[in-house]
Amino acid sequence: MSTSGGGNQLISVHPDELRFIFELEKQSFCDLKVVNNTENHVAFKVKTTSPKKYFVRPNSGVIQPWDSCIIRVTLQAQKECPPDMQCKDKFLLQSTTVPQHTDVDDLPADIFTKESNGKVEECKLRVLYIPPSSAQGNGEEDGLTSCRQSFDGNVALQRLKDEKDVVVSKTQQLQQELDLLKRRKYREKGPGFSITFALVAGLIGIILGVLIKHWFSSPSAIENTEVLTEILTPPPKL
């Protein structure tokens, strides 16, 4: 059991350090029991050097005389293992006496600063990461190996995803180049005249030639031509 040191400590804390079972991408929590060792009302506040990694509830409060309070500290899911499973995070639990019937919402903002309140006691707690125990019961060594294997697996998975993205990108690039070649080939070849169009045009020309020849060879066609010539010939000038 940990106290803040000195003769008459306001509170005691159990356990005296925060122990978290560390597994990648999994939350872990540790409960602290804070006991008021006095006949006074004691206010407390929890601080940490890494506030983004931990979720503390309650992080402040008022404990009745000779009463206790449970504080749950939750380690957020982590994506990487710390080097050698060593954690440098620290927690600080501050406490001071307050008047009777004081509510936590009524606490002054500077009540836990030593400059304004010289009766603030502090209890420092270190953090330990414990690898999950294996089925063989080898403890920390097996847990550390499992953590490293999980980390290596995540690295390999990320590498496969990167390679997949490269293959997809190259495939899209090749498809674009193929479409470009098709468009260039079409422009170089040009629309032109198809063989079918040429045959149809030739056939129509032959038919028109036969019809014109037949029309001019008939007597009525000659008379029509003479009439047409008279109509088209302009009258003589006076």
Overview of the structural elements:
The protein has 238 residues and is of the alpha+beta class. The protein is 37% helix and 26% strand. It is rod-shaped. It has helices spanning 140-189, 195-217, 219-232; strands spanning 2-3, 11-14, 18-21, 28-36, 41-48, 54-57, 60-63, 68-75, 90-98, 121-130. One of its GO terms (biological process) is endoplasmic reticulum-plasma membrane tethering. This is MSP domain-containing protein. Belongs to the VAMP-associated protein (VAP) (TC 9.B.17) family.
Radius of gyration: 47 Å
- Helix-strand makeup class: alpha+beta
How many helices does DSSP assign? 3
Strand order of the largest sheet: 1-2-4-8-6
The helix fraction, in percent, is 25-40%
What's the overall geometry? rod-shaped
Name the average pLDDT. 79
Estimate the strand proportion: 25-35%
Distance between the termini: 142 Å
Order of helical and strand elements:
EEEEEEEEEEHHH
The poorly predicted ranges are 1-7
Number of strands: 10
For the biggest sheet, the summary is:
5 strands, antiparallel
